[in-house]
Amino acid sequence: MIAMFKTRILPLLAATFLSLGGLQAQERVEPVQDTPEMREKALARTEAVGTTVGGLNAEQEEKVMDMYMQVERHLAAIAERMSHQPEADRNADMKHVYASVDAFEQRQLNEILTEGQLDQWKAALGQQE
Questions:
Q1: Could you give the CA distance from residue 72 to residue 48 in angstroms, rounded to a whole number?
Q2: CA separation, residue 120 to residues 17, 30, 40, 44, 54 (Å)
Q3: Which parts of the chain fold into alpha helices (H)?
Q4: Model confidence over 9-67: pLDDT tens digits?
Q5: Which of 22, 76, 79, 95 pairs with 34 at a CA distance of 20 to 30 A?
């Protein structure tokens, strides 16, 4: 039963959570507080996207930074909720979370980047058209 939950139900729940929740922690009474570490990670990832695609304009930079802050908030909320689980369970569950976050990131970048930038991004990731 647990194996079925981890292999079938958890990925479905994670995808539903991300699509319906917009990367918001739904069970939290208080929102996740932004930290300097979260901002540093989001900024580093934003700069990496900019470097990879040959630069971002100001609007793109703001949108990419906002996206990565959403990701950081989401990951912090998930980590907090999973903090009482055994480490092996957390690690197994986080694989599904990271896959959902990667899919969210790609959907957002598809909307933010120009076609040429998106081609460069996909090439850098080794993705085919």
A1: 16
A2: 30, 39, 24, 18, 8
A3: 2-4, 10-21, 36-53, 58-82, 87-112, 115-125
A4: 656 555 555 554 554 444 545 678 899 999 999 999 999 999 999 999 999 999 999 99
A5: 95
Measured CA distances, 9 to 17, 36, 44 (Å):
12, 34, 33
Q: Token pair for residue 54?
A: 């040959």
Maximum alpha-carbon separation in the chain: 49
Q: Using CA atoms, how far apart are residues 71 and 75, in angstroms rounded to an integer?
A: 6
Rounded-to-integer distance, Cα 117 and Cα 32, Å:
32
Nearest to 66 by CA among 48, 43, 32, 33: 43
> Two tokens at 38?
């979260």
